Amino acid sequence: MPQQINSFPQVATIAGTDSGGGAGIMADLKTFQARHVFATAVVVAVTAQNTLGVQASKLMPQTLIDAQFQSLAADFQIRACKTGMLGDSNHVRAVAANLKKYDFGPIIVDPVMIAKGGATLLNAEAIHTLKHELVPLATLITPNVPEAQTLTGQKIEKKADFITAAQMLQNLGAKNVLIKGGHLDLPQANDYVLLSDHTGFWLTAPKSATKRTHGTGDTISACITAELARGADLATAISISKKYVTATIAHSIQVGHGHGPLNHWAAQKEGLSFENI
Ligand SMILES: Nc1ncnc2c1ncn2[C@@H]1O[C@H](COP(=O)(O)OP(=O)(O)O)[C@@H](O)[C@H]1O
Ligand SMILES: Cc1ncc(COP(=O)(O)OP(=O)(O)O)c(N)n1
């Protein structure tokens, strides 16, 4: 009898590494593993980083970016992918060109700009390039409040501002929008979702009083990528991912001396299976 080939959902992160293990590709890989998908990665940048900040970083040569995409496309069936730290204009352009060339399924664009410690992860010129060349390719864009404000010019303070900014991001070409509200000084972590059919909904969770939030944006976007690859519809993938990131923040682990990393085992710790968190 021929051996049955087990097709396992395969995903890709296209982003930067974090030597401290809390954010970027490292957070993505931990999330993918926890959410039962097979993780692959295109390394765009390498950072020397820990929970105290980014000490150094370097962007990969563009030929190596192209080669990594080619390697993945030649051997894997990538069902969904996400982008993170892209560094500069040329690298945003190179990633956009590869995402047009290869079908990696739904594209989740996390428009990472500044690390929690304040380091710039996307320069000013690259913001313009991202807005015009990568955002139009996005199945879903997942900015935090400062990133959404930068991309739209819309100040975000109250609920109506989230809705206006989300509509502006759709006008830039993103099909669906998730604006994450974790940066606002509120007792709740409120996020707003605007879907391609123009319906919107809020996601709300209690805000944990902790500074162990390094990699929250990476984790929620990686979880959405994983859930889409496993077959969920977008609204369900986003709702599951909000629950997952909330659990990883609420059950924090003591690692490092600054903005600590999340607990990617949190769902298991709560006795929640990967299907029903
Ligand atoms: N202290 C917190 N407690 C609970 N949820 C949080 C907390 N901080 C952020 N979140 C949630 O984590 C996700 C990402 O957070 P946010 O800080 O807004 O974006 P980013 O990590 O990209 O800067 C969002 O769902 C947000 O609501
Ligand atoms: C390589 C790399 N990518 C992304 C980030 C951003 O992480 P962080 O500052 O914790 O913010 P969120 O992931 O929560 O948006 C990074 N620091 N390094």
Automatic annotation (TrEMBL):
Pfam families: Phos_pyr_kin. Pathway: Cofactor biosynthesis; thiamine diphosphate biosynthesis; 4-amino-2-methyl-5-diphosphomethylpyrimidine from 5-amino-1-(5-phospho-D-ribosyl)imidazole: step 3/3; Cofactor biosynthesis; thiamine diphosphate biosynthesis; 4-amino-2-methyl-5-diphosphomethylpyrimidine from 5-amino-1-(5-phospho-D-ribosyl)imidazole: step 2/3. It is an enzyme of class 2 (transferase). It comes from the Bacteria. It catalyses: 4-amino-5-hydroxymethyl-2-methylpyrimidine + ATP = 4-amino-2-methyl-5-(phosphooxymethyl)pyrimidine + ADP + H(+); 4-amino-2-methyl-5-(phosphooxymethyl)pyrimidine + ATP = 4-amino-2-methyl-5-(diphosphooxymethyl)pyrimidine + ADP. GO terms for cellular component: cytosol. One of its GO terms (biological process) is thiamine biosynthetic process. GO terms for molecular function: ATP binding; hydroxymethylpyrimidine kinase activity; phosphomethylpyrimidine kinase activity. Residues 18-263 form the Pyridoxamine kinase/Phosphomethylpyrimidine kinase domain. Its EC number is 2.7.1.49, 2.7.4.7. CDD domains: HMPP_kinase. Keywords: ATP-binding, Kinase, Nucleotide-binding, Thiamine biosynthesis, Transferase. Belongs to the ThiD family. This is Hydroxymethylpyrimidine/phosphomethylpyrimidine kinase. It comes from Bombilactobacillus mellis.
